[in-house]
Amino acid sequence: MLSFIRSDLAQLIAYTPHPGGTIDSPRGKPAQIDRVDTNESPYDLPAALKEKLAWTYQQEIETNRYPDGSHAPLKQAIAEYVNESAQLASSPIAATHISLGNGSDELIRSLLIATCLGGEGSVLVAHPTFSMYGILAQTLGIPVVEVGRNETNFEIDIPAAQAAIANTQNPPVRVVFVVHPNSPTANALSPAELNWIRSLPPNILVVIDEAYFEFSQTSVVSELLQHPNWVIMRTFSKAFRLAALRVGYAIAHPELTATLEKVRLPYNLPAFSQTAASVAIAHRHELNSAIPEILSERDRLLERLQPLQKFRLWPSAANFIYLRPNLQDKGAIGPMLTRITEELKAQGTLIRHTGGGLRITVGTPEENQRTLSRLQEFNFGD
Ligand SMILES: *Cc1c(COP(=O)(O)O)cnc(C)c1O
């Protein structure tokens, strides 16, 4: 290892969106690859919107100039969208409550830099959850405290979380990450979890990641301004179909957004990404019109998998489902998950093996039908 590299980074494993490398099965390459492992929308932008964006790129964007580093028009549009989406008649959310990141991933890192860096804090997460919180904390040398979840409904183990907060010193817990609804388990925050985050003291930042808001329609934004220690994160990568362009936003107290602005790179959002996000908001009704189909396809997937008995399923408040093989021998679950993931991959369905289960994105009806048949046909015996 090169001796100038921080020793703690040697142990760190980089995030891999499609673990397991290329698809190369003894049966040859599948004709069709269904990417139902990363929770994006299965639908690209409509052709007319792409043309509009291409036109903007040709006519309006000067590629020799730096992009707008203030993000002012986009922040304004997002603030209006947030008020509208939460049916907040008094329009309490303003552009000063918004900060933009190169994906929510950048915002997670900026939040960590703004709160915990330099030995000032640890972060708390409840496993299984979105892996980026832990990965980004580790890259910054920030300790990660993990607690578990209730296996029947994936509610956070609140007594364990309280104990971890009480017992973690040097440095104390400064940030708690929750996801609403959680990935990979697809459950929205329960009343008990909501009460718990309301009860956390003002010296702990609560990050509420609402990446799947457009699917779940659950949000804590109406309570945000009562809690200066809360920040909500959202993204254009899921329902808004812009994962390729990397735009996420945070909604928070103006003092926190001002700090995020200090910490981010000055030109973190390319001009084209800013334009695309503005166009997506302007056409939100058209883009969101795909959501009812995705939700009914999700319910159909769950209904068809239910009678199989071989899988344990959980309800979903998002555009993906989570399942585990129903096996008596708990030690056999891990190897079985690997087998199922490999077998589906060989057939052309990419799913994600994570958190001791399988996370499967709801795709197009055709993709879902293939996912379903392949899971139905999967043979647990050998
Ligand atoms: C997909 C996802 C995001 C989005 O990240 P981007 O960097 O905005 O693409 C954030 N949080 C969770 C929990 C997610 O699943």
Automatic annotation (TrEMBL):
- Obligatory cofactor(s): pyridoxal 5'-phosphate
Query: Per its UniProt entry, what is the enzyme's top EC class, as one word?
Result: transferase
> Which InterPro entries does the annotation name?
Aminotransferase_I/II_large, HisP_aminotrans, HistidinolP_aminotransfase, PyrdxlP-dep_Trfase, PyrdxlP-dep_Trfase_major, PyrdxlP-dep_Trfase_small
Identify the metabolic or biological route this protein is part of.
Answer: Amino-acid biosynthesis; L-histidine biosynthesis; L-histidine from 5-phospho-alpha-D-ribose 1-diphosphate: step 7/9
The Aminotransferase class I/classII large domain extends over 38-375
Key word Mitochondrion present in the record?
no
Q: Which residues carry this modification: N6-(pyridoxal phosphate)lysine?
A: K238
Keywords of the record:
Amino-acid biosynthesis, Aminotransferase, Histidine biosynthesis, Pyridoxal phosphate, Transferase
Q: Which HAMAP family match?
A: HisC_aminotrans_2 (MF_01023)
According to the record's subunit comment, the protein's assembly and interactions are: Homodimer.
Q: Which family does it belong to?
A: Belongs to the class-II pyridoxal-phosphate-dependent aminotransferase family. Histidinol-phosphate aminotransferase subfamily.
Q: What is this protein called?
A: Histidinol-phosphate aminotransferase
Q: Quick one: which gene encodes this?
A: hisC
